[in-house]
Structures are given as C-alpha cells and as structure tokens.
Description:
By secondary structure, this protein is an alpha/beta fold. The chain has helices at about 15-25, 45-55, 70-75, 100-115, 140-155, 170-190, 215-225; strands at about 5-10, 30-35, 60-70, 120-125, 160, 200-205, 205. It contains 7 helices and 7 strands. The strands form 2 sheets. It has a 5-stranded parallel sheet, with helices on both faces. It has a two-stranded antiparallel sheet with strand order 6-7. It is globular, with a radius of gyration of 17 Å.
Amino acid sequence: xxxxxxxxxxxxxxxxxxxxxxxxxxxxxxxxxxxxxxxxxxxxxxxxxxxxxxxxxxxxxxxxxxxxxxxxxxxxxxxxxxxxxxxxxxxxxxxxxxxxxxxxxxxxxxxxxxxxxxxxxxxxxxxxxxxxxxxxxxxxxxxxxxxxxxxxxxxxxxxxxxxxxxxxxxxxxxxxxxxxxxxxxxxxxxxxxxxxxxxxxxxxxxxxxxxxxxxxxxxxxxxxxxxxx
Length: 229
C-alpha cells in the first residue's frame, strides 16, 4: 500500500533540494530523502546532506537513501559536471554541464525506491524559470516522466515540483516563508550549489567560487531577493 501523503525528496545537498525538503516537511507527515553519487565534480555537495538533515530534523523526517550511479552516468560520456573541463556552451545551445539522462535516471531510481517504500509523492527541485536550460528540468519532461512511471510501475505517483515556476529570488523567499531567518541561514551556510565544489570562499549567499553558472544564479537570486525585502 502507498501512503498518499508520504513523500520522497530527491535531495542533493543543494539550495533547491534543501528548500524542497523543507517544503515537503511542512506539508506531509512522513518524508524520506534520496541522494545520488554519480561522479559529480562537486561531490562535496553530498557531505552537506547530513548536516542539513540534522538542521531540519523533526518527527516527520524519515530514512535517507543513497544510490551510487557513478559507473552508470560517468561511463556514458564526459561533461563539465563529471570531468575537470572548462564550462562552456555546446554547439547544441546547451551548457556542457548538462548530464544527458541524469534527471530521468534519478526519477526512475526514486520511483523504484518509492514503490518499495510505499511513498506516493516524489519531490524534486527542478525549475524552468531560472535555470541553465537543461531539458530534463522542464515541466513537459516531468509530466511525461510521471505518466511513464505510473504506467510502467502500475502506481499513482505524483511528481511534485514546487520550484518549477519560481526564480532563484522566489526560492529564497519560499525558504523564508517556510522557516524564517533560521531556514534561510541553513540554506545559505549548509547547502552547496557551486559546480566547481568550492567551499573555501564565503559570500553573503553562501559558499562557492562566485563565477560558475550555479554561483551566478544563486548570487543573483539572493541579491534580487534581499533588495526587494
């Protein structure tokens, strides 16, 4: 049996997934998390997951699950997200930080775990409003995946995307509305977004190199949000 109000959050240790975890905990009585090691260049994000879970600990926070996909995604081709190469745009108009099939594989693994654990709602922090242009973050992709997973696993999963139409400033605002300054500070200090895995340089918006696309999005959102308060 699947708990209609039990959720599984795809939790990387980044800003978006941390905000989504707080969002799910505010809505559902039982929330579990799943993370993926896929040979990411910024693997330091994985070490951020447990401190964040501890900071958000409550009666509704359930088990954490880790899945090792390094051999799978790492073996399918080099990208700037999984190899030490310069971040640039490709001839297809996509940044070379795009890992083909990543979110599709993540969702398949998450749904398989949710099927076994009796979790109906699968929450992920993809966004089509303020993002790097990845096609597997788009609303149409998520809707198609929900249909495929429900047909292929004979379940009624609901894929929840609370950030889909929010820019980064609105994501900071969502964190503030969910948990006030305490949650904003947790996101700022403990989560990780920088593609280069830099946690040596601290900024108003958190740790990162300050120059990669992920840092630019996070910093821009922070500055827009702070200026509007």
